[in-house]
Specification:
By secondary structure, the protein is α+β, with helices and mostly antiparallel strands. The chain has six helices and four strands. The protein has a four-stranded antiparallel β-sheet with strand order 1-2-3-4. It is elongated.
């Protein structure tokens, strides 16, 4: 187990401990019941409650940060030449650059032609045929999706990962996201 994986496990355990304490009633019922019985001063109950909430919050924030840090899509900065030369197999280097590409290079309003110049021709595409291509993301204006295969990086590496780029009717980028099939 790598140090990053060990840290991830500890942060998840910390988060689960805080959640478990809260759910099992140790946090709520025990503290407030003790205050009613005057077995625990009110000030102490607030301190214990704050500690429980703090443990849970620290674990949740830490787990989220580590999840992002351990994501296979944020391992390398985007480099156009390497993207264009990358093999499109399950270990494609594209996957490691995808996070940087989406965050720093694919900007809303960018023309479709500029996207294709940057990334090369898409591995697949979908075009509007009277029904929304993307639902629930606020991309109802999408008229075309450019799809790039990233390899099999997420989860247990059983399914393919893709970068989808939504293009509107005027040929402008309106969004980009990574997903697993």
């Amino acid at each position: 187990m790598t140090p990053d994986q060990l840290l991830a496990a500890l942060l998840y355990l910390l988060m689960l401990a805080g959640l478990g304490i809260s759910i099992l009633g140790f946090g709520g019922t025990w503290i407030f019941g003790a205050v009613k019985r005057r077995a625990l001063p009110e000030r102490s109950s607030l301190l214990v409650g704050a500690i429980i909430v703090g443990v849970f919050a620290l674990g949740a924030v830490g787990a989220g940060w580590l999840q992002l840090r351990l994501s296979p899509f944020h391992r390398a900065p985007f480099q156009q030449q390497r993207w264009l030369e990358a093999r499109t197999d399950r270990d494609s280097l594209r996957g490691r650059m995808a996070g940087s590409l989406v965050r720093r290079h694919l900007k809303k309003g960018m023309k479709r032609e500029a996207v294709v110049r940057l990334l090369g021709p898409p591995d697949g595409r979908e075009q509007y045929r009277g029904r929304p291509l993307v639902e629930g993301r606020g991309y109802e204006r999408t008229r075309e999706i450019l799809r790039y295969y990233l390899g099999d990086w997420s989860g247990m590496r059983l399914d393919g990962d893709y970068l989808d780029i939504a293009i509107d009717g005027s040929g402008q980028l309106i969004g980009a996201w990574i997903w697993q099939s």
